[in-house]
Amino acid sequence: MEEKRRRPAAILLILAAILALAILLSLMFGSTRLSLEEVLRAAQAGDMTSPDLRIFLYARLPRTLGGILCGCGLAVSGAVLQVVLNNSLAGPNVIGVNAGAGFASLLVMALFPWSAALLPAAAFLGALACTLLIYGVARCTGASRMTIVLAGVAVGSIVNAASSCLKILFPDILAAYNSFSVGTLSGITMTEVRAAAPYLLVGLLAALVLSGDMNVLALGEETAQSLGLKVERCRMLLIAIASVLAGAAVSFAGLVGFVGLLVPHMARMMVGADNRAVVAASALLGAAGVLLCDLLGRTLFAPFEIHVGIILSLVGGVYFVALLLRRRGGKLND
Amino acid sequence: MIECRNLSTGYPGALVSEHIDLAVKEGELVSLIGPNGCGKTTLLKTMAGLLPPKSGQVVLEGDVVSQTPERALARRRAYLPQLREVPDITVAALVAHGRFPHLGFSRKMTAHDRDCVEQAMELTGVVRWRGRRLKELSGGQRQRVYLAMSVAQETPLLLWDEPTTYLDINNRLTIMGLARKLNHAGRTVIMTLHDLADALTVSDRVCLMDADGAVRIAAAPEEVFGSRQIDQVFGVHSEQVTLHDGTISYVFTSKRNDI
Questions:
Q1: Model confidence pLDDT, tens digit, residues A257-277
Q2: Does residue B74 surpass a pLDDT of 70?
Q3: Cα dihedral sign for B72, B77, B80, B81?
Q4: Which terminus has fewer CB within 10 Å in chain B: N or C?
């Protein structure tokens, strides 16, 4: 079983094909089925009265692009963090992305209830600020990967307590917060996607560039340092990248769970431990996974829509149970 | 080659060793010995530049180690830590990581890099496991793979922290033989060892540290043995024995009867 040769390039190609299919499906299907011929015809004719074209431009396209970016961002963020913290169960919430983004968006909802436009920026900055705070606390005690996790638990607990206070003091915000905290791609606009896209693209590129260094970092702190890697600088840079990626994804999609934890784990099982392949596979698989789960959510009980975060929790939970049962059988995969 | 000048070292809030003067010449094989917790690892790490000195300095071929950039340093000395991760990669992939300090920004291996990896694997006898995953190997096999990585680093100086601890006798002797072989091939080797007989038989010089982290004596094995300092530091009685083939070895017996 161990001797089976993994061919990362072939697997990446297959994942890319799956993503392409997911994009096509996500553009075509939904509460109504779009005919791509009609969309193309209307677009060529410049016929903005065509309902198909309007749905395509203002609903499907932003939603699909948003799904791709959100899935890529969270999955790559998780892949990076699992290496930095040497923990195959780490995800963006470990470095306070969820806690920070959640608190900041609650704050905006409470203080500026009329300006929903502030929400993405607030979530992004909240995630980033919380990560910085956690890193700052960890740094005072040496910033080893253990102290980062512990500082994450401590700071996350404080921030979540503050969030809970806000929810009690401003009960009106609960309804709006609910869909944010579950994570959804519904009602997403091109403006939101356009605001988050640069951060996600730069973060993705940076993660790919640093994926070779991630391999050296995975050899352990002392070995990496003795090989000439600036360990602390590299670790800080990677945490910043992970935070930007996840923060940008959360800014428009809300606290979509499980992608950052699950997808890198699956990617590693598919392509092996080389992080250059893991980062690329996570990006493709994350995007495809979020698109397909979102598609499922909006077609399963149409016209009702199940938030993509709920579907992902469901799929993620089932995956984990399956993983546990396999371990019990003695087939350790990692 | 490398020199500690009035070196004091330790961790934040804990001084381990003070006023160490130790010079190792090019082409020497030196063992650091001393009781558990005496600061052998701390000294070796400081020499490798992984730990900043509290005072004094370590000079590597004329350059102060603590002021040399990481990458440049990694092209001049390899350091093998005591505790190592077991990443889920193949033997060849791990050994290839030894080339990291020589790679450019694109991190692409050249033909020369690949040659170095092959040579290192041949020299350490790990070629036959090249496609195996690290997790499938035994402790002794893994140890040799890690040594191969440090050899592939192509540095004139090798610093190994307890390369033989936890290994069975056969693996231990293989690794001691490897240290000698690399030393004959021109590498300077400094390693910490717990096995005193190994240290006294394989080394050009033995550096004995006491429980306070001070260097008691750093001299040829015969001289260290003759000084009886080992007996004092470890609380043992040491004896030199000549084996039937004429080689000299050492045995140690407990001085106390308090157990």
A1: 889 989 999 999 999 889 999
A2: yes
A3: negative
A4: C
> Above 90 in pLDDT, residue A59?
no
pLDDT at A1: 33
**Can you read off the two tokens belonging to residue A188?**
């997403």
pLDDT of residue A71: 95
Residues of A whose CB is below 8 A from B136: 2
For chain B, what's the residue count? 259
B107–A contact, CB cutoff 8 A? yes
Lookup: tokens for A5:
């040769």
3-class secondary structure per residue, A20-83: HHHHHHHHHCCCCCCCHHHHHHHHHHCCCCCHHHHHHHHHHHHHHHHHHHHHHHHHHHHHHHHH
Please indicate, yes or no, if residue B251 is contained in any of the structural domains.
Answer: no
ipTM higher than threshold 0.90: no
Which residues from chain B sit within 8 angstroms of residue A219, using beta carbons?
84-85, 87, 94, 97
Establish if A99 belongs to a structural domain.
yes
Cα B29 to its chain centre, rounded Å, is: 9
Q: Are strands B55-60 and B157-161 parallel, antiparallel or unpaired?
A: unpaired
Angle at A223 between CA A218 and CA A228, to 5 degrees: 100
Q: What's the CA gap between A160 and A166, in Å, rounded?
A: 10
**A86 touching B (Cβ < 8 Å):** yes
Residue B6: which domain range? 1-76+156-222
Domain that holds residue A93: 8-328
Which pairing describes strands B63-64 and B55-60: parallel, antiparallel, or unpaired?
antiparallel
